Amino acid sequence: MKLRVNVPVWATHIVSDLTDMDRSPHPVDAGKVASFVLTLPDDVYFEYAFVDRTGAMRADPERHERADNPWYGVVSAVYGPDYRREPYAEPETLPVGETKRIRLGSRHLGQTRRLSLYTPKGFEAEPLPVVYIQDGVAFYRYAKLHGVLENLLQDGLVRPAHLAFLEPVNRTAEYGFNPAYRKFVLEEALPEVERTVSVTGERTLLGASLGGLVSTLLALDAPERFRTVATFSGAFLGTPDDRDFYKGRRSWVLDELRARERSPLRFYTEVGTLEWLTDVNRELAQVLQAKGYDHRYAERSAGHNWTSWKNGFREALSFSLNVTDERV
To answer: How many CB atoms within 10 Å of residue 232?
Structure first.
């Protein structure tokens, strides 16, 4: 599809999924280039916006479609003629299970942290696997992952599990190669969760963008403690010495996976084809395949956004909580 974009006279920059919105704004000047054309796949979902002279992000005034994005203000959404929302992306029924709110004093972080622990209806007394989720507020309140789980359970597509929604304070500092945060998760959050509810010992790590990075780092720290890692647009660029997750030329995660012997970990990874993380995620998928990991990989004609990630929830949860698993 061809998308003509007219540059507003007030705009100084354009931002989009291609660069994680405001991370690398591209200058525009309507007096020099009044419009341009984007060539996009017919099944695309894409988000963009303009920045005005005050630095405020504003939607394209000539497009009526608006993105449902919890991390940015009002931005424009582009739906291709062949785009279809995944049926389980938006829960049709409200979850009715039990949510416990936990406040946990952390020795490693030197402060109190919060997490939400969801158990699906009817399984309160049963030992269950646990899915540990980064960016817990967004996944719980906005994306309603617990509602997706309930819908998938109702249709017999997954096994039941507890969902532990971990809430960051400074996600970039904590998720990006921060050993103190990972010690908090491994040594404080996991034991607290597993004292609070009945568990089987099977654990999944799940996260988006930098949440996908730290989920993978946790699994590499302690591969014997986890079974599955599920990532959406994993931010796998950068190293502990070069924490540039946008323009980094090296990937510590790729280097480690190449150098290590294969572990029993399983991986679900997906990425959009219109974001700066496409290449590193493709390379990660190739490494996992070459190493012989149990791995499922998906690409979407989309950018770095929550609408795309929600379209992957069914596949990620069905891979992580496979109903045919003999370990039920």
So the answer is: 29
277 and 193 in a common domain: yes
**pTM exceeding the 0.70 threshold for the entire prediction:** yes
- What residue has token string 């996009």? 40
- Cβ–Cβ < 8 Å for 202, 130: yes
pLDDT in tens, 249-304: 899 999 999 999 999 999 999 999 999 999 999 999 999 999 999 999 999 999 99
In a domain, 327, yes or no: no
Q: 166 with 115: CB under 8 angstroms? A: yes
Q: 16: closest CA among 57, 55, 47?
A: 47
Residue-number span of the structural domain to which 11 is assigned: 2-79
Strands 111-119, 162-166: pairing is antiparallel
Answer whether residue 328 is part of any domain. no
Buried-exposed string 281-313: b where 16+ CB fall within 10 A, e elsewhere = beebbebbeeeebebbbbebbbbbbbbbbbbbb
Distance CA 205, CA 215 (A): 5
- Asked if residue 16 is part of any domain, the answer here is yes
Measured distance CA(202)–CA(300) in Å, rounded: 29
Q: Identify whether 87 is part of a domain.
A: no
Q: Kindly report, residue by residue over 209-249, the tens digit of the pLDDT.
A: 999 999 999 999 999 999 999 999 999 999 999 999 988 88
CA distance linking residue 158 with residue 28, whole number of Å: 47
Element (H, E) at 279: helix 278-291
The domain total for the chain is 2
User: Is 11:54 a contact under the CB 8 Å cutoff?
Assistant: no
User: Tell me, what amino acid is at 167?
Assistant: E
CATH of the domain at 56: 2.60.40
